[in-house]
Specification:
The complex is a heterodimer of chains A (279) and B (119). With 279 residues, chain A is α/β, with parallel strands linked by helices. Chain A contains ten helices and eleven strands. The chains are: A alpha/beta (279), B alpha/beta (119).
Chain lengths: 279, 119
């Protein structure tokens, strides 16, 4: 079973819920797909035993064959390839590695070269616990390739948790794609609700199963609860804000190692999403 | 010869734009007809790579000279590939005034980028 944890708004507790759920499971794999700002590894404190560099492909034009027809430039949505007067310009940092320019080239003048855009780190946490996270190099335009690699590497895992990036754009869609269930980490603030509505829209469009964990449930206002009821969205759990939790997280430690309250909450979420046998 | 000027409007008295690739319009002055025409800059709405795209817009119009406020590294590369020379105007003047300054050889030629790339 693949479970993605996402939020829309940043800072609502995606990583907190991901790492604490992961620690509460007997056997599981966690991937941190927030490759622009991965944080899960800072809580899990594993040792990296393997690093794999991730490459993207970008077009290289053979100017002896190219007839400057311009079709590649018309096709590219990101202006990464622009046919000029005597040659074709390629801006490799704008390339999203879709392969389209090669497909539309009538003279077969385009081949692809590799460019390193980031890494995947393999960590051992404890027995039966695998953790992988990706990191996108500074200045690179898209982490989707790294996210896809992370998911391919773990596609056969029995229980896979996916700590997803914030927002509702390409990288989030790529992170949650193919999941059996999505957990929305929300907070009961006007901002948390506003951003969560975008996530709900996304998940409904993708026809995915999902439920909500309201984090910091005693802060903010009641609007989120009214919204969940009106929209008939399952409230999986609500987790209080406590100053001690903030302090534990601020030290980079796991809540389940310090709080029975959070331990119970995690095991309830696991029961509801995965079933009793996993809790 | 056609000379392009980055413009905020569609009149010779419109103010010059403060950005190149995201300028609303390009004023195109044709030295054969001595007339201005104005084209919508389709590159301004691009999500990424507007600099290269804006140069392509000018290249397709057979522009040979462009007067600009600033240029990023990708726009410079593209201008070279399209054989378009660029000169930097002072901000806050009109399109016509920028063109006259160019004719009076008061504008410096841009040979390298003046700002960092913005994706």
């Amino acid at each position: 079973m693949k479970i993605a944890i996402l939020s829309g708004k940043g800072g609502t507790g995606k990583t907190t819920i991901s790492v604490n759920l992961f620690s509460s499971l007997k056997k599981a794999t966690l991937i941190d797909t927030d490759v622009e700002e991965p944080n899960s590894h800072l809580f899990l404190k594993g040792k990296t035993y393997h690093e794999e560099i991730v490459y993207k492909k970008y077009p290289v034009v053979d100017h002896d064959i190219c007839n400057l027809c311009g079709k590649c430039g018309d096709f590219c949505n990101f202006n990464a390839i622009i046919p000029a007067k005597k040659k074709v310009l390629v801006f490799d940092d704008l390339c999203h590695d879709c392969g389209g320019c090669k497909l539309v080239c009538p003279t077969n003048a385009i081949s692809y070269a590799d460019k390193a855009i980031g890494s995947i780190y393999y960590q051992s946490i404890e027995e039966n616990k695998q953790f992988l996270y990706g990191k996108l190099s500074v200045g690179e335009i898209s982490g989707v390739r790294i996210i896809e690699d992370l998911k391919n590497l773990t596609k056969k895992e029995e229980v896979l948790l996916i700590d997803s990036p914030p927002g509702t754009s390409c990288s989030t869609v790529s992170a949650i794609e193919g999941s059996d269930y999505c957990i929305i980490a929300a907070e009961p603030t006007p901002f948390g609700l506003s951003d969560m509505k975008m996530v709900v829209e996304l998940l409904r469009e993708e026809k995915m199963n999902f439920g909500v964990v309201v984090n910091k449930s005693n802060l903010g206002n009641n609007d989120i609860y009214e919204y969940l009821e009106k929209e008939k969205i399952e409230l999986l759990e609500s987790i209080e804000f406590r100053e001690e939790f903030a302090k534990i997280i601020a030290r980079g430690e796991l809540l389940v190692n310090h709080s029975d309250y959070v331990k119970d909450k995690m095991s309830n979420i696991i029961k509801k999403v995965l079933g009793d046998t996993y809790a | 010869m056609k000379i392009a000027i980055c413009s905020t409007g569609t009149e010779p008295e419109s103010l010059v734009a403060d950005r190149f690739a995201r300028a609303d319009y390009f004023a195109i002055y044709d030295s054969k007809t001595l007339q201005f025409s104005f084209v919508d800059n389709s590159a301004k709405r691009e999500g990424s790579g507007a600099g290269g795209k804006a140069v392509k817009v000018l290249g397709d119009l057979d522009v040979e000279i462009v007067l600009v406020p600033e240029l990023g590294p990708k726009a410079i590369d593209a201008l070279v590939a399209f054989d378009i020379k660029s000169f930097q105007y002072k901000q806050g003047e009109t399109v016509r005034a920028a063109l006259y300054s160019y004719f009076e050889k008061k504008l410096p030629e841009m040979l390298e980028s003046s700002v960092q790339g913005k994706h």
